[in-house]
Design a protein that fits this description.
The chain contains 27 helices and eight strands. The protein is α/β, with parallel strands linked by helices. The strands form two sheets. Strands 1-5-4-6-8-7 form a six-stranded mixed β-sheet. Strands 2-3 form a two-stranded antiparallel sheet. β2 and β3 form a beta hairpin. The termini are far apart. Keywords: Membrane, Transmembrane, Transmembrane helix.
Length: 693
């Protein structure tokens, strides 16, 4: 249900945003209506679950609700732009209040070389300003602003976090078994990165809901079909959950289309979603190949029903991803340019996968014949062991990587230099050797160990090796796509996280796929170990209890250091006071660098007055006095009241007596490079104002 509801909202929201009609009434009618339609048609003929009672459902719902309440009580208030969450928040506020892009520049008496309208997270484009990121998360967060202003906006992330816990539990029920779903939901809910991204406006949680929700939708579509045997062996066995469900073929294609749509819409939420769902493209091609193979061989016409899911899955994927690319090309073009260095290779990989998928689907009968001819060979007999061994080698390689590689990047672009300077300052605070070229990416697997514990990583590796071995033998087809997404995204993310490496900030990269994927596999691995122990005559209940403790407790211990300390509290009240101090007929000029980065869009969007920065000479944080005087006179010429803002009163005294309009004393996230975060840092922000006489 969460994935279906978000899909309906986003499908309706983007066209309305592009038309400038992203307003409460149109979105309630179109977005809310489409979400209800998707949920109705997606849920009205669910497969019947007969393998367990009601307690797993009640337990998962209870864990999700507890997660939402806990994170809601300790939610953050990142509104002053310092990093991505506040950019998303300001993006959402603008959409909720104005419903269109780009953001107008405002009237300052005409153009002037000293005027700067851009700020951190906001680009100049097409005669206006556009936010840095994709529109999906702000379109979701805008719901909270419509319902309760800023207070409602900051409570949307905890609700999404609760839905993510529910989604992980539902996916575990389908892939492992309903009795194991509460354990997966609990292990996920207590992990620090999940707590971190469930308390403020990140994009990772909506992305997780769409991807794992789409997995569940596709698994339900498979359950509606009778999985038969195929000559290639891909459908040779069904999971225990599959055998416990009654086959219901009706609506399977529609469910597959909904799954593809949810997969594709991750691109509208995060550009990185294109990489995460790349295996879906290959999987859809495989299903189409199975359908062609069944038509080519009369004996298989009733034995490859899953091939029917390929075309609707592919169409849904294309539709969802198409909306994401439409947003990139219309309202996120500068962001696309900023990411071009990493996005172009990704698009090239996607194009190559698409070509290979088309060719493989077209040549399916020929390939099947060659595979069949080789199936009795020595290589084919060794393939299961090779697949399992490769899994262990990859994990072992990532584990020893810190001892054989040090990942560095020499600054080339201005953005690289800013990152290098930040890393150098963070190293100084962490009492580490100063080396601004370090990225610490070689430690990425150990990041996972910090946040979920060694037992989860070990059990997940075991489960992946066992599943890879079984799939090489033509079994566990239900795990093929989930394992492909989890494996592909985990390896590529851990190899190159592509994020500033301080924690908990960098931990957000692990949230959409890596952490939930590891937990799903670990729970499956625990079930496998229990069955083996039972087969060998050992007691299984004590083993399961011990395993559950090992899956939950290490993550909880790491989370304790920050779980009960909210960050950025007081920002909402401070911003409210700032806006109250600024006259409604003002045009604001910000005359200091850091304040301009932090509050230009905040004053423009939340306070609702035209805002610009005054340019400053190179190697200076203060603009020229003559530029300020000239701009003040031009603002007066428009009939508006000039207002100057800065971080210190001394920067404003030449233009009038300053008044402090924002005084924030709060806590912020720690910035740890080589250890898991275990506390918070102080945060101090001051803003002073004057109105030139």
């Amino acid at each position: 249900m969460p994935a279906l509801a978000l899909s309906g909202w986003l499908v309706a929201g983007l066209p309305l945003l592009l038309l400038g009609w992203f307003r409460p009434l149109p979105m309630v009618l179109a977005g809310g209506g489409l979400a209800l339609v998707f949920c109705w048609y997606g849920l009205r003929r669910l497969p019947e679950v007969v393998e367990s009672g009601a307690w797993p459902t009640v337990a998962v719902l209870g864990i999700a609700a507890a997660s939402g309440i806990f994170n809601g009580l300790l939610h953050g208030e990142q509104l002053i732009v310092r990093r991505d969450p506040a950019t998303y928040a300001q993006y959402a506020v603008w959409l909720a209040r104005h419903g269109s892009l780009p953001i107008p520049l405002g009237d300052f008496g005409g153009s002037d070389p000293a005027l700067r309208f851009v700020s951190m997270g906001f680009y100049a484009w097409d005669g206006g300003i556009v936010p840095q990121f994709m529109a999906g998360p702000p379109m979701i967060h805008a719901i909270g602003y419509w319902l309760g202003g800023v207070s409602g906006l900051v409570l949307v992330p905890p609700i999404l976090g609760a839905l993510a816990v529910l989604t992980v539990g539902g996916t575990a029920a389908r892939l492992v078994g309903a009795r194991w779903a509460p354990l997966a939901a609990l292990a996920f809910a207590v992990s620090m990165p999940v707590l971190y991204t469930s308390r403020t406006t990140f994009s990772e949680i909506p992305s997780l809901i769409l991807i794992l929700g789409a997995m569940s939708l596709l698994l339900d579509a498979r359950f509606r079909l009778r999985a038969g045997l195929l000559g290639l062996g891909f459908l040779a066995s069904a999971t225990p959950v599959e055998t416990a469900r009654r086959a219901q073929p009706g609506g399977a294609r529609l469910m597959a289309a909904f799954a593809g749509l949810a997969f594709g819409l991750t691109v509208l939420v995060r550009v990185d979603g294109l990489r995460d769902v790349l295996p879906v493209l290959a999987y859809a091609g495989l299903l189409i190949a199975l359908a062609r193979l069944s038509r080519a061989r009369d004996a298989m016409k009733e034995r490859a029903p899953e091939g029917k899911l390929g075309p609707p899955l592919l169409l849904g994927l294309a539709a969802g991803a198409g909306l994401g690319f439409a947003a990139c090309l219309t309202i996120a073009r500068p962001y696309l340019g900023y990411l071009s260095g990493s996005l172009k290779p990704l698009i090239a990989i996607c194009a190559a996968v698409l070509v290979l998928t088309v060719v493989a689907a077209a040549l399916a009968p020929w390939i099947a014949g060659r595979v069949g001819a080789l199936s009795g060979g020595r290589l084919a007999r060794r393939l299961p062991d090779v697949a399992a061994g490769l899994v262990v080698l990859v994990v072992a390689g990532l584990a020893v990587r810190p001892w054989v590689q040090t990942v560095r990047r020499v600054a080339v672009t201005p953005e690289d230099q800013l990152t290098a300077n930040f890393i150098g300052k963070t190293q100084q605070v962490n009492h580490l050797p100063i080396d601004q070229t370090r990225l610490y990416y070689e430690d990425s697997l150990w990041w996972v160990v910090w946040y979920v514990g060694v037992p989860v990583v070990v059990l997940a590796t075991l489960a992946t090796a066992v599943l890879a071995r079984r799939m090489a033998k033509g079994r566990e087809f239900g795990w093929l796509l989930p394992l492909a997404i989890i494996g592909w995204t985990t390896v590529t993310t851990l190899w190159r996280p592509a994020i500033t490496p301080d924690h908990p900030w960098a931990s957000r990269r692990l949230v959409p796929i890596v952490i939930p994927g590891m937990i799903l596999l670990a729970v499956w691995g625990l079930r496998w170990v229990r069955r083996r122990a039972h087969r060998w005559g050992y007691g299984s209940r004590l083993l399961v209890a011990a395993g559950a403790v090992l899956l939950v407790v290490p993550a909880a211990i790491t989370s304790i250091g920050t779980a009960f300390t909210p960050v950025d509290r007081g920002e909402a009240a401070a911003v409210k006071g700032l806006c109250a101090a600024i006259p409604p007929n003002a045009s604001v000029l910000i005359v200091e660098r850091a304040t301009g980065d932090r509050i230009t869009q905040l004053v423009r969007g939340v306070c609702g007055v035209p805002t610009a920065r005054v340019a400053y000479p190179q190697h200076s944080d203060v603009p020229l006095h003559s530029d300020i005087e000239r701009l003040v006179d031009k603002v007066r010429g428009t009939g508006r009241l000039p207002v100057l803002l800065a971080a210190e009163p001394g920067q404003l005294w030449p233009y009038g007596p300053p008044t402090q309009v924002l005084k924030l004393r709060s806590r912020q996230d720690e910035r740890s490079l080589v250890d898991p975060p275990n506390g918070t840092w102080s945060l101090t922000i001051d803003v002073w104002m004057t109105m030139p006489a």
